[in-house]
Each structure stands twice: as C-alpha cells, then as structure tokens.
Amino acid sequence: MPRFKDVYAVLPVTDHAAAVAWYERWIGRRPDTEPMEGVAEWRITGNAGLQVAHDPETAGKSTVVLVVEDIDETVGDLAGRGVECGPIQDFGFVKLTEIVDPAGNKVTFVWENPSPE
Predict the structure, then answer these.
(1) CB neighbours (10 Å) of residue 107?
(2) pTM of structure
(3) What residue stretches are annotated with the VOC domain (predicted)?
C-alpha cells in the first residue's frame, strides 16, 4: 500500500468566487492555499482538507462527510456564521446534519455516539 501524506475532498463548483466566499464564511478563514487558478484549499484537521475547484461539468454532485466532536456546537457555530444546517437526524449510534454549498454539493457533519445503546 502506498504511504499517504494528505487527503483532500474535492468539491466541484460552477461559481468559484461565490463558493470560496461561502466556504470562508463557515470555515471562518481564507483558504490556506490557492495552488492554481480556480482551486482553493483549506486544511481542516491533521492531514485532511477540503478543496473547492471550478469544474462546472461535475458541480453539485459531491458529498463530503466530516466527523465532529459536538454536533450541537457545530450547528450553533454555523448558525452564528449565517450558515443554516438541516435538521439533526438522530440514529442512536450517530447524529448528523448537512449543509449544501451554492453549487449543490453536500457537506454532512456526523457525531459518533461513544456509547450507543
């Protein structure tokens, strides 16, 4: 197996500037790097990140799942930034909610219950 260094989830968008502004709002900062025209990257934890890339042909068809430490805190923080989440769904062993970017890509936030019944 190859030795991996980093992992990035790629979210294709139609309007790169609008998407970058939207991601900046909920992530809370400018991209960590913009390696080429039409691409913006944020490191979100350890060696994992999000990449927003201008690609109108595949825009709006991606989903990324981010595991969070506290789903209620995440939803509250996002609401404070003007980003509304869908309802929190409780499956006992996990709770989840999602947001949808301007291109239609889904970002799902998942909290894993450490002691499911």
Answers:
(1) 22
(2) 0.90
(3) 5-112
One-letter amino acid identity for 82?
A: G
Cα distance between residue 97 and residue 44, in whole Å: 18
Contacting residues for 66 by C-beta, under 8 A, at least 6 apart: 44, 107, 108, 109, 110
Q: How far does CA 110 lie from the centroid of its chain?
A: 11
Structure tokens at 43: 């490191």
Taking alpha carbons only, the member of 57, 52, 53, 6 closest to residue 26 is 52
Rounded Cα distance between 57 and 79, Å, is 30
Task: Give the residue among 74, 111, 105 at the shortest CA–CA distance from 89.
Answer: 111
The pLDDT of residue 117 is above 80: no
Return the amino acid letter for 35.
Answer: P
pLDDT tens readout for residues 9-38: 999 999 999 999 999 999 999 999 999 999
At position 101, the amino acid (one-letter code) is D
C-alpha to C-alpha distance for 44 and 30, rounded to whole angstroms: 12
Those residues with Cβ within 8 angstroms of residue 117's Cβ, 6 or more apart along the chain or in another chain: 92
